[in-house]
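All the exercises in this workshop are built on plain-text protein records. Sequence and backbone structure share a record, each on its own labelled line. The question running through the whole workshop is how a given chain folds. The record below serves as our worked example for the rest of this section.
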Amino acid sequence: MPEVSGAAAAPRTLAEALRARGDEGLAALLRARPDLLNPVPNDLTQLATRAGTRGSVVRALERLDRFALQTAEALAVAPDPAPYPVLLGLLTGDEGDPEIEAALPGAVALLREQALVWGEDDRLRLVRTARELLAPSAQHPSPTGLGPTVAEATSGMSPGRVQEIIAAAGLSATHDAVSAVAALTALFTDRARMGALLDTAPPEALAVLDRLVWGPPYGEVTAKPAAPVQWLRDHGLLLPVSPRTMVLPREVALHLRGGRAHRSPEPRAPEPAVLREYRPQVVDSAAAGQAQLALATVEELLKSWDRGGPPVLRAGGLAVRDLKRTAAALDVSEETAAFWLELCYGAGLLASDGEADERYAPTPAYDDWLDLPPAERWALLVTPWLSATRTPGLVGGQDAKGRALSALGPDLDRAPAPEVRHRVLGLLATLPPGSAVEPESLFARLRWERPLRGAAAAGDGDDLRSRLARWTLAEAELLGLTGRGALSGPARALLNLPLAEAASPGEPGGGVEPAVAAGRAATLLAPLLPEAVDHVLLQADLTAVAPGPLRRPLADALAVLADVESKGGATVYRFTPGSVRRALDSGQTATDLHEFLKAHARTPVPQPLTYLVDDVARRHGHLRVGAASAYVRCDDDTVLGEILADRRSSSLGLRRLAPTVLAAQTDPASLLEGLRSMGYAPAAESATGDVLITRADAYRTPARTAPVPVPDGPPAPDTTLLGAAVRAIRAGDRAATAVRKEPAAAPTAAGALPRTSAAETLATVQAAAMTGSAVWIGYVNAEGGASQRVIAPVRVEGGFVTAYDHTADEVRTYPLHRITGVAELADDQV
């Protein structure tokens, strides 16, 4: 195809600038701004239009780092278009700054890549929507602190007033207001003349300028302003925007600032500082200890809800009193308890049962989770945590309507949470192994990377990203991803991060599947975790010490026979009459308990424990409770007499039916509980007189899936989608911009579909099929949608034309009766 004349000329629009890019440049734009892909634009003009819409520009600005955003803000206060030296001067000032000079080309290239800036270096243009968002105005002050230009501030001023300012400034009178404003602007931008004018200003007037120079540029004045303010007003250094408000013109502020648009340009990202350094082995050991504690905490929490947990609030979530009870049971703060609950919920181990009286309970996935090795269980907890958008740190706060946010309730999703978690851990990986980060330096880095994210997100107040980062550091320590504040080896494997390099901002890093990375992390963690033991140490004070994590069957059996007294590196269990009775209620006999203790004790069974088991077993089942409403029977009638004589039995409504039988006015369960509170050990019996064995049958919800994270905008496109999208946009653009050879007798209006008769259409496409040339057609689909296409006909038969469609980049078949017309392409387009 011959080169079109003027193709190398400077682009006049954003669409032309995009048209001059290569495929890699278009792919980079679509990768950085995936919202432009939904749906795929028909051509580059539509892509440029979509890239300039307000919503898309706002999303793009929110993902700029601080220096790129400062560059865009400087362009917003610069002339349009702005030469590169002017932009450089706004960022470096009169004195220059080598660091800014080195960083600015990269910032401009980034803005160009994201289609926020276009044009050559001698004519840089900020996209109009971005200029509207970033340019100073009274309603939306600029971060630069600059005000309007002289021309903008005097737009509503009377010509006479403008001439008065010109005269007071020592300038010659002009014949019109436009030239007068131009003369005043030239004065304020001339450093020498402006310096001479300020030398004549009263010191008090200069003090007023000092207060306004870095913003805000607006100030209120009285009806009769003081002499210094009046002097500034007379000389145009302050211009009125209302009867009581004055503004410092942009040109004056830039002169006073030495040409800088920003007080503190930040071309370089702040580096996270090291707080303390440890040996990597110490970090991994501490992290493994936390991982073991995390597994034990999750298991304890869900085991306590094994028969059904607290009810679900009508609005969803857990009641405050239930959260407090959970925190007390786990011996943690309410904030930490909320984290463990959300962790179980996010991993799919906990859910609501969906019944009429809805309550929380473990899911069937919890039983499968228990059967896995400890390292794999840990990986199944931390992997969903990394990608979860639910934010436990918000529990206890309020939503936008002032309603309390509850654990497991709605409105806890924050879309930036996964990106912040990945980025925090990625920044920890940039530090030397074993180094703990100084938190404030980490938060400063995150603010530099996304200055517009945080406070503006979800209305959560100040700097949401810093709060998310703070919660991430605490939660990573609880999970064992970090030890003593430093990133552990298994965490690096989970993130697939190199030893001393971080992922790019906003990217989780690595190129393997999450499941593969989780498997690697579990493999690294497994040797660091203590091995499960199959024995306990019995002591004479009716306690047993587990010197490490117990194997599953032993842990389950011991949890029935004894109560946990303390947790830590070694768990202490205490045997009580109630715990022994609980074991007997589960169907075990005294002989079973004695054999169990001998088999799993590394020390001799203490005599007090033997006596305790025998004493409870001797009395267990001596009394029988059934349904009368309820009854008590006992072979020893003196025992029943003692019960009737005891004042504590009055609430049970007991009366003697026979020497060995008492009837009660309460239900069997309440009768059992009442007699046990009196110190007896009754056993329940069935209608046939058999002893009822109570088993700890677990209550489970129906199968539930884990909550799906809320996406933070469109997903990042993969390479295949990007390639297909670029080809489709290129093909559509060729069809939209192809030069057509219009029939002389029936010219087609610009943008209209070609119109030819059926015979002309058939003849033209047949000729194109024989010569292998491309033609331009108008086509109306079955839904009535009209489009223009460039096709290369291959075969024409049976009322259909089969052709390669350059617009869709594929072979298609078109009914001839739906083609409105056809035109040949111009010779230089063939």
